[in-house]
Amino acid sequence: MHALSRLVFWLVGLVLAIPAGAIALALGVLNDAAARETIGRVGLAAFAAIFRVAAAGGDPAPMVETMVLGFWMLACVLVVAPVTLVSALGEIAGARSLVLYGGLTATLTAGIPWLLRGGAGDPAALAAEGRLTAILFVTGAVAGLVYWVVSGRSAGRESAQ
Q: Among 42, 63, 101, 124, which is disulfide-ready with 148 (CB 3.0 to 4.6 Å)?
């Protein structure tokens, strides 16, 4: 019975932590001028490409589906995967540490672009990368801390009977 209740706690914690991380990411990106401009340009280019295909008599649905799938995969990698991995490890270990859930999720989330790229990038882009890393760190911290508040504080404890 304890395992079932921990599974429910884990799922509820994730259901609340993932949107909290997504909101933190959205707010962080919207507060960074360079990120706002980049998103605006990408969105405008995507709209123009879809419009060109539709104006030429083609079906823009495959292009839209590809864009939506790409956005979904990016969201899963940046928001869903880190908190899910850290929370699963914390639950298995029975850890109740605020630092584990908040800090490790934040570090993992901030490190994802560096890991995928294979290390340091262009030195000219270091300032922008630093801002993005800070935004991702806060995103992971928010998701991890929300998970800890909801479920992580009681990890590993037997329920009172």
A: 101
Q: In this structure, are residues 91 and 105 in contact, taking their beta carbons and an 8 Å threshold?
A: no
Name the helix (H) or strand (E) containing 85: helix 81-93
Residues 155 and 95: beta-carbon distance below 8 Å = yes
Q: Are 109 and 136 in contact (CB under 8 A)?
A: yes
Q: How far apart are CA 137 and CA 75, in angstroms?
A: 15
- The pTM assigned to this predicted structure is 0.82
- Greatest Cα pair distance in the chain: 69
What would the pLDDT profile of 64-73 be if each residue is shown by its tens digit?
A: 999 999 999 9
> Cα-flanking dihedrals φ and ψ of residue 157, to 5°?
-85, 140
CA distances from 99 to 113, 142, 148 (A): 22, 12, 9
Q: What are the tens digits of pLDDT across the range 89-145? A: 998 888 888 899 999 999 999 999 888 877 666 666 667 778 888 999 999 999 999
Q: How many CA atoms lie within 13 A of 28 on its CB side?
A: 21
